Amino acid sequence: MTTQTPVADDAARLAAFEARIAADESIEPKDWMPERYRSQLIRMMSQHAHSEVVGMLPEGNWITRAPSLRRKMILLAKVQDEGGHGLYIYCGTETLGVDRQELVQQLLDGKAKYSSIFNYPTLSWADIGAIGWLVDGAAIVNQTMLAKASYGPYARAMVRICKEENFHKKQGYEFMVTLARGTPAQKAMAQESLNRWWWPSLMMFGPHDADSPNSDELKKWGVKRKSNDELRQRFVNLTIAQVKAIDLTVPDPDLRYDEASGDWITGPIDWDEFWRVVKGHGPCNSERLGARRKAHDEGRWVRDAAMAYAEKQQRNNRETTERQQ
Length: 325
Ligand code: FAQ
Hints:
By secondary structure, the protein is mainly α. The protein has 13 helices and two strands, in the order H-H-H-H-H-H-H-H-H-H-E-E-H-H-H.
């Protein structure tokens, strides 16, 4: 498949499209859509797919070091799930007329974004629990909203992905509960990990609404149903209760409860750090891209073999059909 040539938008079709969005109709791949809607979806969905695939790396690092068979099996299954999520979302993106290889190449060339969170290192075993709890927890808050997105293939992928992410989050929290109720050293390891993952998890929701150039358009077209700040606030409210339940603390001296709104209000987020990581200068950006490039190069023979096999099957089918005629 090659990238489709943009078709000029016209006012009547745009009005009909916007009426469908207002009526909460699902937009499907063969429906007419404004080019800007298409390109915004390709941008966001491909970044999401890349995040899932790059997101396998921090946890994948610990598969060989899991301390029990049970934890190893859970971790293996989780990392495999994330790869599957990437594949669903790449498939969803292809329905917009873009070639997957083109998107993967953008990632390998360092031209595509993926979630900032995966550029932080996994330094201790507790990080595997913290990722399931906080990173999958944040992803669920965001993706439950996206399961109602106006673009059908993306929304349907999110429904399935959220079911799996819920398992991931629950195992992550159960993991942290076990450490927090374990020996003093285990509890300290859980706390140290929470200290490192807390702020990067809040950054996953993107910049404040006032600094989010894409949000207005995405909300107008029903892709985002809630803003970055609304989702971040929901995540904070849900998570602080869980932190307290296991007697840990978040590394935020300014955290306070606001009686009037019922919200937990955090201190300021370090946006300089966020943009540094997004622009490629986080602690693990080059390591992550290096690992993806290596995997891509080493997997070339698998792709070549799969293509050769598919061509052979097609040839055999053609010959069988010709013989039967
Ligand atoms: N990291 O105007 P906005 C997961 C960029 S999946 C990097 O607010 P938008 C599962 C943004 O792209 C995690 N870049 O952008 C898992 C834009 O740049 P551009 C991924 C970020 O699109 C768990 C610029 O900043 N989830 O974790 C980030 O309206 C465990 C301005 O921002 C998704 O991708 C960031 N955190 O809102 C896997 C969900 N935030 O393109 C493995 C789908 C912003 O203009 C293990 N995506 N940027 O150059 C979304 O919901 C949205 O795209 C946002 C950003 C909310 C991420």
